[in-house]
Specification:
mainly alpha
Length: 429
């Protein structure tokens, strides 16, 4: 029975449309993800030093004017904007910005007598416009396709973090710092920290990101124009602003879950809370939570968490993903895991089981499972909301972005002003 289900999952889909949907999904967040992954190298040249992430976070939040403008335009303009045309514009902004970053990321200017990475700030803003607007535009656009391709798109969103991470790993970003002897003038030697140089520079890294963005843009154009892709549309009507009405009788292969208004509101609140934590806070507290257990625990937690996202989305092809009971159960598990991870971050540099192998193993497992479950539950909520038709997917995207923004602002204040978390100091040579 299970083999028959797996076989039918592939028979009822076009692998080409799957591939194009995944590639389109990668464009959603690869621009911003790649910048933060490359930070260990960027801070070496930036006049802001390790304050650079704070400036970039501000620019990303300012870019929320993108989804705000789109939402207001669709509501108040007499002549409605075609969603596909807007996506072309947004992808063009992201693609052009990504190639400009490769050549201008280290250009600075003086503002108020202080040197700043002005070119990088401006380009990060435009990259973030692409990323932030994708929540209310790219993902809702996929609602016109059958449900299976929405899952493929969300898998691509997960890969937008994994792909640049793998390239950065090959590049050597965040390489291990070792203590090596350095001979000084009087003939004696002292131990000094040394980090091996990267295999290639930031410019080559950002050129790679540009190539991926360009390919993603081509993938969307093919999804939008090719007839065999349009044959994979769900039966129903598409209106401006990604407003859908599905013909459920003609979609025999799909399961449409009907929910009450209270359940509808609850699921929107839940995905907002999950985005508040996962998109807004988790990355900021990860180092506080994991570094007390060692740099290896931190790097493994970060790497496996990135991998868990697309893996969880891919598993949704074979596992049930429209059950409200499963969503509630997994949300309970997420609450427990989140509590533990926040406790370890808050107790840094002396969290539970620090200095033991069990503590390191536990924190790696918890962070990996937590990110995997969050990704899976968000996918489940998104597919359930898609069944409701109308602008449900637009609401999901808007609430997701709102939650992420609030989470990022609050954790920024807690870390930089309230000083709630204490960093673990690296051991000296």
């Amino acid at each position: 029975m299970k083999f028959a289900k797996i076989s039918s999952a592939f028979k009822e889909r076009s692998i080409t449309v799957d591939f194009l949907s995944i590639l389109f999904g990668i464009a959603a967040w690869i621009g911003i993800n790649s910048l933060f992954i490359e930070l260990p190298l960027l801070v070496e040249k930036a006049p802001e030093g390790w304050n650079l992430p704070s400036y970039l976070t501000i620019m990303v939040q300012l870019a929320n004017v993108g989804p705000l403008f789109y939402t207001l335009a669709q509501k108040y303009l007499k002549r409605k904007l075609d969603d596909a045309h807007i996506i072309y514009v947004v992808l063009a902004i992201g693609t052009v910005s990504s190639i400009l970053v490769a050549f201008l990321y280290d250009k600075t200017a003086y503002i108020g007598g202080e040197e700043h990475s002005v070119a990088l700030f401006v380009l990060v803003f435009f990259l973030a416009v692409n990323c932030c607007t994708s929540s209310v535009l790219f993902m809702p656009y996929m609602g016109r396709f059958k449900e299976i391709y929405l899952i493929s798109y969300l898998t691509g969103e997960g890969l937008s973090g994994l792909v640049p991470s793998v390239v950065a790993l090959i590049q050597g970003v965040g390489g291990k710092t070792e203590c090596v002897p350095l001979e000084i003038e009087n003939g004696t030697s002292i131990l000094t920290p040394y980090t091996s140089p990267p295999l290639f520079g930031s410019q080559a890294f950002f050129i790679f990101v540009f190539v991926v963005m360009f390919c993603s843009s081509v993938a969307f154009a093919l999804l939008d124009k090719l007839d065999f892709c349009k044959k994979q549309y769900a039966k129903g009507k598409v209106d401006f602003g990604n407003d859908y009405s599905y013909d459920q009788e003609k979609e025999g292969s799909e399961t449409f879950v009907q929910i009450s208004r209270k359940q509808y509101a609850f699921l929107l609140i839940l995905i907002g809370v999950l985005s508040f934590l996962a998109n807004g806070m988790f990355n900021s507290i990860l180092s506080y939570s994991c570094l007390p257990y060692g740099s290896q625990a931190y790097h493994l937690s970060a790497t496996l968490s990135v991998i868990a996202n697309p893996v969880a989305c891919f598993l949704a092809v074979f596992l049930p993903h429209t059950s409200l009971k499963s969503i509630l159960t997994l949300s309970g598990v997420i609450a427990v895991l989140t509590t533990y991870c926040f406790v370890t971050a808050g107790m840094s540099p002396n969290p539970p089981l620090v200095g033991t192998a069990a503590g390191g193993v536990l924190i790696i497992i918890f962070w990996t499972i937590l990110n995997g479950f969050v990704s899976y539950v968000k996918l489940c909520i998104t597919t359930v909301m898609r069944s409701q038709g109308g602008k449900s997917l637009v609401w999901v995207g808007a609430i997701t972005q709102l939650g992420a923004t609030l989470g990022a602002v609050i954790i920024f204040v807690l870390i930089n002003f309230a000083k709630v978390f204490t960093a673990t100091e690296e051991a000296a040579c």
